[in-house]
Fold this sequence. Notes:
This protein is an alpha+beta fold. It has helices spanning 6-16, 95-100, 164-169, 186-193, and strands at residues 21-31, 40-41, 47-48, 64-70, 86-91, 113-118, 123-124, 150-161, 201-202, 225-231, 245-250, 258-262. A hairpin with a 7-residue loop joins β11 and β12 (258-262).
Amino acid sequence: xxxxxxxxxxxxxxxxxxxxxxxxxxxxxxxxxxxxxxxxxxxxxxxxxxxxxxxxxxxxxxxxxxxxxxxxxxxxxxxxxxxxxxxxxxxxxxxxxxxxxxxxxxxxxxxxxxxxxxxxxxxxxxxxxxxxxxxxxxxxxxxxxxxxxxxxxxxxxxxxxxxxxxxxxxxxxxxxxxxxxxxxxxxxxxxxxxxxxxxxxxxxxxxxxxxxxxxxxxxxxxxxxxxxxxxxxxxxxxxxxxxxxxxxxxxxxxxxxxxxxxxx
Length: 264
Ligand SMILES: [Zn+2]
Ligand SMILES: [Zn+2]
């Protein structure tokens, strides 16, 4: 056991990992009566004028609405992070679809997921909600058609650090062979192992669970930017797989190339 305080150990580790520090934003939320045209988790989304509810591209069932974020509601330093418009995520949570589909939900550009940015001037709040056919949470009933709305009312800035999966991809190892981060202390190692913020967040680093996926833009083959993380059981009462995280990625050049990946 070292005689250092937890604060001293943390300060030492953070200074050694300073090159992996990024700004990230935790959404601050409140619950309330649903308003379709708002930035939120759950509730009822806006749709484009004349559009019917999005269907799963694999099983044709109505997809569940998870999340929408208007770029006007972003932190003032991040207003251009994904462009101008309303970012939305729909996902087919049907167990039957998951079992029978040829499209495992974890891969990008998946017909079982709709992630898009729509023009706020072209949307309507006059949305006809579909009848969902499957319960989507182990202790919820089929009649619980939608998640209760949680509005994003503000953001808390946090320091985010790449977790060990991301660092090792960049060939940065926490061992004696690396001159930059020589570590011979279990307490430091355990803390440094996984410093990435594990909950819902805007920007920062994706908190990969087991392995990193390289998400490439289909137009230019460049690595896409991480935009948003949806964690299991945080602002939405939903568990992705084995308590995994979901990530939204976008090409910085081809902004229409935006996708979701299941980070298991
Ligand atoms: Zn489906
Ligand atoms: Zn591109």
